[in-house]
Amino acid sequence: MNTLLDFSDRLYLDVADFAHSTPHWFQWLAEVWTEAGLLLFGVLFLAGWWRSRDGKSGAMALALLAPLATAFGYVVSEAFKSLVDEERPCRAVAGAPASLVACPPHGDWSFPSNHSAIAGAAAIALALSWRGIVWLTVPMALLMAFSRVFVGVHYPHDVTVGLLVGALVAFLVMKAAERPVRSLVETARSSRNPAVSWCAGRGPAAHAAAHAPAHSERPSRARHGAY
What we know:
Membrane protein; transmembrane; PAP2/HPO; transmembrane helix; Vanadium-containing Chloroperoxidase, domain 2; membrane; 227 residues
């Protein structure tokens, strides 16, 4: 165990030294991404919900579950954090350069990384609800996890465990809750409350009917003759 922690310390120092060798604009991008990535995941949740409004009830159920599963990933990560009082590396690692962002105060523990847990959960939840987007969400999550080490506020093992915990929890929540949430979506789509039905979407049948071409019923002179 001590060997693994020593390795994590050395790896943290290597990343911190690398961070301080990069241009200021690159450091600024890392500082922005470590927080802005969370906002981008939020935008993707909204986009996933919007694109599912005319889709099947199962697709809408997964779109609605994605942010909920991500929230569960954060809660589990925070529970682990309260059990493991690991000091932040920006305060605990001897000889480490100053972190690029302010080192969180004592008591804001390091293990696991909540940012990474949220990113891992969001990446998997979106991938399950939006076919093909995994090629965007997984690199986003990995970059966010790396950025937490890059800016100096987490060990590598913090972000690794955070990613895994978040992804696992999100996967389990999405699979376990898909069927009951799909039933709720079907009920909401038949609701007479316009706000509820708008949020749940019309579904593919209503969408197809709304966009069906109007056929003319005017009789043809060629078929019926002129009078």
